[in-house]
């Protein structure tokens, strides 16, 4: 792998009245490359000796494209709607809506039955207790379902073991559904358990492609197109269902 400067450079330019912030990563390469990440952040991979003026000029030249990409990705960021965790409230699970039913019970727990997420609790009048029970249940379901879908997604690749991540971590993220850590660990947002299974598969396949292609360049999308030709439609459904 190319040597990377240990320092992180953060800069910005102004374009059309808007400020574009970007991070510079220096590597042994000939020309700068601009990437807009799924969280709408901008990363410029630049030669080790490239002057900052030249890098900023490159971003300024591509500013219109950067803004279009940021606008596109912003449509797919997780949106956290306020929840009250009271009886009758609608919650999603695997893309389907369920109504919350809170019942008094000496044995706390959560289960899904015929269109309801039933929460058994000793304190039905305390929404904060209901919230903890529901979130714990969601996280448990997420760990099991994500592990299952990871195996199904790996089967899409010609050499599955070459794309197997070093681990699977369920972690709350404010601006992403998924991520691949530098160490090769797959991170998935527990809120993704609310989405339809085919869109969970899209997020996983997207991140697995980063095992071979770290940036969102031409080769990345060629690989994603090969393993999941209908990924654009799945991404659209993720946005529609989780808006």
Helix content: 25-40%
The CATH topology of the largest domain is Zincin-like
**CATH superfamily name of the largest domain?**
Metalloproteases ("zincins"), catalytic domain
Strand order of the main beta sheet, please? 1-2-4-3
* Strands, total number: 11
Task: Name the CATH architecture of the largest domain.
Answer: 2-Layer Sandwich
Topology as a string of helices (H) and strands (E) = EEEEHHEEEEHEEEHHH
Write the layout of secondary structure elements.
Blueprint: E1 9-15, E2 18-27, E3 33-36, E4 42-47, H1 52-61, H2 63-74, E5 90-93, E6 96-104, E7 109-113, E8 116-121, H3 127-154, E9 167-170, E10 178-180, E11 185-188, H4 197-209, H5 218-227, H6 231-242
Parallel strand pairs: 2-4, 6-8, 9-11
Antiparallel strand pairs: 1-2, 3-4, 5-6, 7-8, 10-11
Question: What would you say about this model in short?
Answer:
This protein is α/β, with parallel strands linked by helices.
Question: Would you write up a description of this structure?
Answer:
By secondary structure, the chain is of the alpha/beta class. The chain folds into 2 domains: 9-74, no CATH class; 90-242, Metalloproteases ("zincins"), catalytic domain (Zincin-like, 2-Layer Sandwich), CATH 3.30.2010.10. The protein has helices at residues 52-61, 63-74, 127-154, 197-209, 218-227, 231-242, and strands at 9-15, 18-27, 33-36, 42-47, 90-93, 96-104, 109-113, 116-121, 167-170, 178-180, 185-188. A 4-stranded mixed sheet has the order 1-2-4-3, with helices on one face. A 4-stranded mixed sheet has the order 5-6-8-7, covered by helices on one side. Strands 9-11-10 form a 3-stranded mixed sheet, covered by helices on one side. It is elongated. The two termini are 38 Å apart. Residues 1-6 have low confidence and may be disordered.
């Amino acid at each position: 792998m190319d040597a990377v400067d240990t320092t992180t450079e953060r800069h910005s330019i102004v374009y059309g009245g808007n400020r574009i912030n970007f991070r510079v990563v220096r590597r042994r390469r000939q020309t700068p490359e601009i990437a807009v990440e799924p969280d709408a952040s901008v990363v410029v991979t630049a030669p080790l000796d490239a002057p900052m003026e030249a890098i900023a000029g490159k971003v300024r030249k591509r500013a219109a494209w950067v803004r279009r990409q940021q606008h596109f990705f912003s449509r797919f960021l997780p949106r956290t709607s306020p929840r009250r965790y009271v009886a009758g409230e609608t919650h999603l699970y695997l893309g389907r809506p369920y109504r919350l039913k809170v019942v008094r019970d000496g044995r706390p727990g959560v289960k899904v039955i015929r269109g309801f997420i039933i929460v058994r609790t000793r304190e039905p009048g305390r929404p904060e207790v209901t919230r903890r029970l529901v979130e714990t249940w969601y996280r448990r379901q997420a760990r099991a379902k994500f592990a299952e879908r990871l195996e199904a997604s790996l089967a899409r690749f010609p050499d599955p073991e070459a794309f197997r991540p070093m681990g699977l971590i369920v972690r709350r993220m404010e601006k992403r559904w998924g991520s691949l850590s530098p160490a090769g660990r797959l991170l998935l947002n527990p809120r993704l358990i609310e989405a339809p299974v085919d869109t969970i598969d899209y997020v996983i396949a997207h991140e697995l492609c980063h095992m071979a292609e770290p940036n969102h360049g031409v080769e990345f999308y060629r690989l994603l197109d090969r393993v999941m030709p209908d990924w654009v439609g799945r991404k659209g459904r993720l946005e529609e269902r989780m808006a």
